[in-house]
Specification:
Elements lengths: L1 H15 L22 H5 L8 E2 L20 E7 L3 H12 L5 H16 L6 E5 L4 H7 L3 H13 L8 E3 L12 H8 L3 E3 L9 E9 L3 H12 L5 E8 L1
Parallel strand pairs: 2-7, 3-6, 6-7
Antiparallel strand pairs: 1-2, 4-5
Helix pairs in contact: 4-6
The chain binds zinc ion (2 copies).
The site of one zinc ion has 6 residues, from loops.
């Protein structure tokens, strides 16, 4: 009888937390439960080893900016949105409440950081905020979840409520083109406690960069608050 009850218990737990890969739906190894992705699928994610220009995408030699000097940040994109597993992770995290994907996204960004050999010592993590009303509906800010994992693994401090989204803009994915994106996001961020940003090196964290408008706008606001170097880190660029 006890055995049967245990079996039933196990069945219920398995139903609540389907321990299958979020992509290929194969059963997961125990070690991969927290990531929600199997090893075979994880291996299919191409992880880059270089930082790039946020404007033209050019690879930066020795992590130094050589073009588009006017841009306020350099871009660290761990992978590409062309990869279908990456697309699944982002969509799952944002719209299907697959919050556990934040750990596999952080793991990917972590490997990327090591590969770039960029020295992130003394950098602060600032996640791109979403508007309070959006956070209420979604229940969380997905970038913050990724930031929490990164903060722990890199031993860097994350500052959460300093950069805020003051204007409730429509989703960047609903905008038609580059110009509309830039217009949509304009003047929508502000820095609340400037002293936390002044003279600091910042990792500006987002899940994905499409046109770069969001990162551009946020980095202008951070620079105006006295930020030193800004590296925008994303899982993928489109
Ligand atoms: Zn899989
Ligand atoms: Zn460039």
């Amino acid at each position: 009888m006890k055995k049967i009850i245990n079996e039933i218990k196990k069945l219920i737990i398995d139903c609540l937390f389907p321990n299958i890969c979020g992509f290929c739906e194969e059963n997961l190894e125990k070690n991969d439960y927290e990531f929600g992705l199997c090893q075979a699928c994880f291996q299919k994610i191409e992880i880059f080893d270089f930082l790039s220009c946020g404007k033209c995408g050019a690879r930066l030699p020795n992590n130094k900016k050589t073009c588009h000097q006017e841009l306020k940040y350099i871009l660290g994109s761990a992978s590409t949105f062309k990869n279908e597993i990456i697309q699944k992770l982002i969509k799952g995290l944002k719209y299907q409440r697959a919050q556990h994907f934040s750990s596999i996204i952080a793991k990917t960004i972590n490997i990327f950081i090591k590969k770039t050999k960029f020295n992130f010592e003394n950098y602060l993590i600032v996640p791109i905020p979403i508007h309070k009303s959006k956070e209420k509906i979604r229940g969380f800010n997905q970038t913050e979840l990724i930031g929490e994992y990164l903060s722990e693994s890199l031993g860097l401090k994350m500052i959460k409520d300093c950069l805020v989204k003051s204007k409730n803009t429509k989703s960047q994915t609903e905008t038609e083109n580059h110009e509309e994106r830039a217009k949509n996001i304009k003047n929508s961020f502000l820095v609340k406690e400037i002293e936390k940003i002044t003279n600091q090196n910042i990792i500006l964290l987002d899940d994905v960069s499409t046109s770069g408008s969001t990162l551009m706008e946020a980095s202008i606001v951070l620079k105006n608050a006295g930020a030193k170097n800004i590296v925008a880190l994303v899982l993928a660029r489109a």
